[in-house]
Amino acid sequence: MAGRYKVTKNSIRNLIIEHFKDGKSIRTIGKLVKVSHSTVFAIIKRWKLRGTVENALKSGAPHKLTHRNRSFIVHKIKKYPRLSAVKLATELEKRFAIKLNPETVRQVIRSHGYNSRVASRKFFVNERTRKLRLDFAKSIVDKDTSFWESFIFKDESKFNIFGSGGRITAWRKPNEELNPKNLLPTVKHGGGGIMLWGCFAASGMGNLVFIENNMDQYKYINILKENLKISAQKFGIQNTFKLYQDNDPKHTALNVRLWLL
Predict the structure, then answer these.
(1) pTM (2 decimals)?
(2) At 59, is the pLDDT very low, low, confident or very high (cuts 50, 70, 90)?
(3) What interhelical angle do 67-79 and 102-111 show, nearest 10?
(4) Cα separation of 190 and 156, whole Å?
(5) Under 8 Å between Cβ of 202 and 144
(6) Minimal CB count within 10 Å: which of 86, 183, 189, 245?
(7) Where is the Transposase Tc1-like domain (predicted)?
(8) Residue 90, Cβ density class (10 Å: 0-12 exposed, 13-18 middle, ≥19 buried)
(9) What are the CA-CA distances from residue 229 to residues 198, 215, 233, 234, 237 (Å)?
(10) d(Cα 94, Cα 92) in Å, to the nearest integer?
(11) What would the pLDDT profile of 204-215 be if each residue is shown by its tens digit?
């Protein structure tokens, strides 16, 4: 880490030695050159031992990477976070003729505050859809509560009967992976699950429907026929409600859109 201490210039060091040769005390020299007496003492001691005020040459090999090389690595990681250290080392070799171990690249990346983590998975949304979603959000962000009272939101969701379909972590010590407390029990065929259709509005919850087998547009229309208007009556908005749903292919199928007209 740079900047831990202030380096005394060689000209000041030589001046300190001249004053010392003239018989001045360490504290007097410190006041004259505006340096702490401990620094003056260290410089004089070094001069007595080595006959010079120069710093000793540092041992070890010089840094293989220049500031430009390090900046290149960080720039690449900022732009392409999923770029591997192996590929980045190869790119450095091609561009700067520097052969590096990928671990060296990782050390540079870590030194700038980056850590390798498992990327979160998220459904892909293209630029056009992002813009449409953002425009939609901006158009309704300032709507008051009364605006939402006539809307019904609905969707389907799967619930696992046994365990979770997500990623589960456990805090444990080394060699404790088989401790029953740290194990995630499983059953054959995943334990199964159920699919539910449900809806809600500002005034409460609507009907909840268990879906057997896979759902297609025709089964979806039947669910809407049997539950949407009844739920709207529960909400007290049977004559004025508007339906909000996502763009699942079943929801946007022609037959569904015609039925909703």
Answers:
(1) 0.50
(2) low
(3) 80
(4) 20
(5) no
(6) 189
(7) 73-140
(8) middle
(9) 13, 20, 6, 9, 9
(10) 5
(11) 999 999 998 888
